[in-house]
Description:
Radius of gyration: 20 Å
Amino acid sequence: MKDTYKIKRRVPRRFTKNVSRGHIVQVELFGHFNKELTFLHPAVVLYDNNKGQLLVAPISTSKYKDNDPLHVDVEPADGLHHGSGVCLESIRGVDKNRVLFQYNKDGKNAKLRTEVLNKIDLTIMEYFCPIHLILLKNSRRHIIRNKSN
């Protein structure tokens, strides 16, 4: 007896493009507890270890202008359709296979502006590495003082 149907399994293609810090990608954040973000979300790449893993911060439209110090606002000019918030409390490492696609803006890969990335860095240091932020600020002051002498 011939099979009258075939099961077609759609296997997603592996994301093979190179991404770098600041690029915006669509990520599958499967599985969560309580208020963790899950399912499909845009995310900003914070680090690519070039071994198939990325450090990303999910982005959510509901976090835009919500006055949470761990949410950095991004504007549509950065490559998203709406104003959104980068959720720094939800930073996580993901396998590159969780990336579905890279966002585009004006025919180029969407990438956050340098000033937004700098704000993300500063916020991470302020809330997750406060001692290192103090050391950095003291080092800067010391360098400026020595230059003026």
